[in-house]
TrEMBL record:
Gene3D superfamilies named in the record: 3.90.1200.10, Phosphorylase Kinase, domain 1
UniProt-recorded name of the protein: Predicted phosphotransferase related to Ser/Thr protein kinases
Species assigned in the record: Syntrophus aciditrophicus (strain SB)
GO MF term (any one): kinase activity
Signal sequence bounds: none
Every Aminoglycoside phosphotransferase domain range: 69-260
Presence of keyword Transferase: yes
Entry's transmembrane regions: none
Superkingdom of origin: Bacteria
This protein's UniProt keywords: Kinase, Transferase
Amino acid sequence: MKIPDTDTADLHRRLVDFALQTLALPPETALNISPLTKGGSDRSFYRLIYKIDNTSEGAPMDVGGTCSVIAMHYNPERRENTVYADIAQFLLELRVAAATVLAHDPEACFVVMEDLGDEDLWSCRNENWLSRRDLYAETLRHAHKLHRYFHDDRGIPLPALMEGYDAALYRWEQRYFLKEFVEPVCGINLSPAEEEALEKELAELAIRLLSKSDTGLVHRDLQSQNVIIHERTPVLIDFQGLRTGSPFYDLGSLLYDPYVSLTTQERMELLEFYYALSPQVLKWPDFVTLFYEGSAQRLMQALGAYGFLGHRNGRADFRAHIPPGLHHLLDAVSRTSSLPRLRALTVRCLTVLNLGM
């Protein structure tokens, strides 16, 4: 058993012991623990690699060879971390592709789940469009099942979720954008009159997202790095933020993903695909308008996160997402007439950061 000689050695040892118990493997089983550093959350992920023989029981993969699982240790002070395992089970019952949780110890804050590999939708970004389109379409099918949960009654009860989207949460995300991105990253301090006018505009945006779009379950972070491609099939991960909200938030998250740029034609092709999945109360032009508005809301939240993680916490990898995020926001707000002040602010941010139009 390979244990790092660091202050975290005891944690790793306990995590390995929990995994061996979960997999019904002997305690002397040789196991390598390799940290996975991807992402910006307060959870720690590890790949646990081991070998088994033909007589072993409980191994989830590749009997007779090298196997692996993913182990997670989470901070219980952040409530969404504590509901991960129950949401995973719920998604599988709903027939939404998700990683299978093999065991959860809520006292130790350990989760062991199947290892689906490292390929994600982001890593497929350079493939030809026909190949990527199929992966995006299948991802949208899974998202659609979530979005239609309250319409397509399957008798599957909801697990404990985070508080759903309401005016206060939309407002929090908008303020997050201003306080963590516009002010510290762009150095822009709005005058009281400018701030009041923008707040009025964004409050009306929240009202439209709450009143004009059907409430569903939303992933809340449905972007390319949270869609694992396992055997050419999309599987959702990082779904602990699941909650009630507007489907347009998820659509904006995926189709205006700052990590992967889609052309306007590709984006609209996928939006039309989603629109045709079920009967729509909204006419197509109204649907498209709400898509752009939901995308603007999502992109404000994402840019706030890039400001917090990149500027305040010094994460260069997140700072790198600011230019595409801002350009996506400008594109979205430029395609609707309802957000002129947000558009003007986005142009100011691009100008200050010398990112062009």
